[in-house]
Amino acid sequence: xxxxxxxxxxxxxxxxxxxxxxxxxxxxxxxxxxxxxxxxxxxxxxxxxxxxxxxxxxxxxxxxxxxxxxxxxxxxxxxxxxxxxxxxxxxxxxxxxxxxxxxxxxxxxxxxxxxxxxxxxxxxxxxxxxxxxxxxxxxxxxxxxxxxxxxxxxxxxxxxxxxxxxxxxxxxxxxxxxxxxxxxxxxxxxxxxxxxxxxxxxxxxxxxxxxxxxxxxxxxxxxxxxxxxxxxxxxxxxxxxxxxxxxxxxxxxxxxxxxxxxxxxxxxxxxxxxxxxxxxxxxxxxxxxxxxxxxxxxxxxxxxxxxxxxxxxxxxxxxxxxxxxxxxxxxxxxxxxxxxxxxxxxxxxxxxxxxxxxxxxxxxxxxxxxxxxxxxxxxxxxxxxxxxxxxxxxxxxxxxxxxxxxxxxxxxxxxxxxxxxxxxxxxxxxxxxxxxxxxxxxxxxxxxxxxxxx
Length: 454
What we know:
Elements lengths: L1 H12 L3 H24 L4 H20 L4 H17 L3 H22 L9 H20 L9 H6 L7 H9 L12 H8 L14 H21 L11 H5 L2 H33 L22 H6 L3 H7 L2 H12 L8 H16 L3 H26 L1 H8 L6 H17 L23 H17 L1
Helix pairs in contact: 1-2, 2-3, 2-12, 3-8, 4-5, 4-6, 4-8, 5-6, 10-12, 12-19, 15-16, 16-17, 17-18
C-alpha cells in the first residue's frame, strides 16, 4: 500500500521514487527532533542513543532496504579498530584505508550511466564521519600543547562505546546527506550541553523554521525550473546546432537549477540539526546564540560572491572544514602547500566518485583558485589596477559580481555534476558511445576552446 502511494506520488511529481523517499526522509527529521525535544531530552544518554540508532536505521531501511548492512558493517569494524589498535598511527591508517576502500568498491559495483540514489550516497557521508572519528580518537591521546584549537575541540579523551558510535553514525539529522559533525559535539548534545540554556531544551525553533523555509524555497525553485532544463537535451541534435554562446548560457542555467537540489537538502537537514540542538555554536559578540554549527551553506554569500574562493567557502562548508582539518593540515610534512592542496583535492575527487568528471572539476578548482589568488595579489600590489578594479565606470559593482559569478558557474560548476555534459568526449558518462565520430571531433574542438578560455 505504502509502496504504491510512493509510486503514485513520484509519478505525479515527475521524480524518481528514490528521490521522493530521500526528501521525505529528510523532512521526517523534524518530527524526530520534536519527539526528542518533547519526550527524550531529559532521558539518560543510553535512551537517546537508542532513539537515534533506531530512527536512523528506519530511514536507512526505508530508502535502501537490506543494503543497510553496509553501514552497519563499517560502523562495527570501525569500533573494533578503535578498541584493538588504540590511539596509534596504524589505527588511523587502517581506518582510512578500510573505509575508503569499501566506499570505492561500492562505487565501482553500483556504477551506472545515470545519477542514482543508492546506498553509496549516505555511505560517503558515513565514511568521512568514521575516518574523522579515528583521527579525533588519535588526537585524544596527545598532549594538549601538540594540538591546534580545532583539534582540541574535537579530540576524544576517552574511548567511545559501541552505542555512542552507532548513535553518532545514525543520527537522523546527518545520516543521509550530512552535515559532518564530530563525536565530541554529538556527545555534548546527548549531555544537554548544546543549548543556549544548558540543561534545558534549546530555544531553536525559530532558527530551525527559517532554514526549513529557505530550503523549501530552494526546492520550489528546483521543481519549477528543472523540467525546462532536462539533461537529455544535451544529447540532441538541436542542442548541437545551437551557437556556442547559447550552449554556454544553457549550461549556466542548467547548472544553477540543478545545484538547488543540493542546497535544498543541506538547508532542510541543517534545520533538523538546529531544532535538535546540534546546530548550537555558542554566542556571538552581541551575546546572541549562534545556530550555525551545522551550516553547510551560506546562501547570501554563495549567491552574490564574485570570487570562486567565495563560492567554495560558502558551499558544502562542513565537508570542506572536515577535509581542511583531517587532510590538508595534516599534510604539512610534505613541506609544500601546493602539493598539500593537490593531494586534498584528489582525495575529494575520488571520495565523490569514480567518474572522470569529478577529477576534471577538482583539477579546474585547483587551477582557478591559484590563478585567482595570484591575480588578486597583482591587483593589490598595483594602486592603478586596484583603482580600475574598484571603479564603477567599467561596470557597476553588482553587475560585475553577476558577470563573474556566471563565468564561474559556466566553466567550473558544470563538470561537478554527474553527466559532465559540456565535455561530450568523456566516455565515463556514456556520451561518447552514442555520438558519431564526427560529433566527437566537434566536441573535442569545443573542449580545446574551453581550455583556452580558462
